[in-house]
Amino acid sequence: MIRLLLRTSNAPALLLIAMIGVAIQSSFFSFWILNYFQPDVLLLLVIWFALRRPFVEGGVLTLIVAEIAETHTAAPSGLFMICYMATFLSLRGAARLLVIPDIASLMLLTLFTSVFAKVIDMGVFRLLGGSRAQVQHMIVFIFPTALVNAMLGKWLYRWLEKLDWATFKNIRAERLLGDDLNLEIG
After folding, report:
1. Domain residues of the chain, as ranges?
2. Under a CB-based contact definition with an 8 Å cutoff, are residues 118 and 141 in contact?
3. What angle do CA 135, 153, 147 make, to 5 degrees?
4. C-alpha to C-alpha distance for 19 and 25, rounded to whole angstroms
5. What is the sign of the dihedral through the CA atoms of 145, 150, 154 and 160?
6. What is the residue-averaged pLDDT of the chain?
7. pLDDT per position as a tens digit, 34-73
8. DSSP symbol at 134
9. CA–CA separation, 108 vs 151, rounded Å?
10. What residues contact 175, with CB distance under 8 A and at least 6 apart?
11. Are 41 and 156 in contact (CB under 8 A)?
């Protein structure tokens, strides 16, 4: 019973983190100089969903996170939905080829994914009718945002890993571990 409660609390906890992240981003980082160092917590969560969740669950969580982003922005409707899903699907495909043994490689992947996501943002934004001046403004923020995302990712991924260990138990993995322990004892 407790395992079921913990498992069902994982997704709402992740969505609560997304909402808190959006609230902090939209209030604290609205000042002039801090705007250059604004992290994208939702993108970090999308990276986590792509690497650590099953396809359907990660896709649904990505769509919900994209909807949270859509409600808190003045960007054209559908921009974050397209960009976050493209990032999620690209990372799911790349995850089959990549080996991510430690946090440093995960930070490097976050750096490249942040740049990739901003390029997707700019392309989709331009296709949806965004002005050239706004695209040029986005170019200024690509690399500072990517560096901040990589640095923030170091702590956020560790915290998400602890959250997953506390709430997101894989029943099959637990059963296999239990079978291995039973074989060693018997």
Report:
1. 2-31+39-185
2. yes
3. 45
4. 10
5. positive
6. 82
7. 777 788 899 999 999 999 888 999 999 999 999 998 888 7
8. H
9. 10
10. none
11. yes
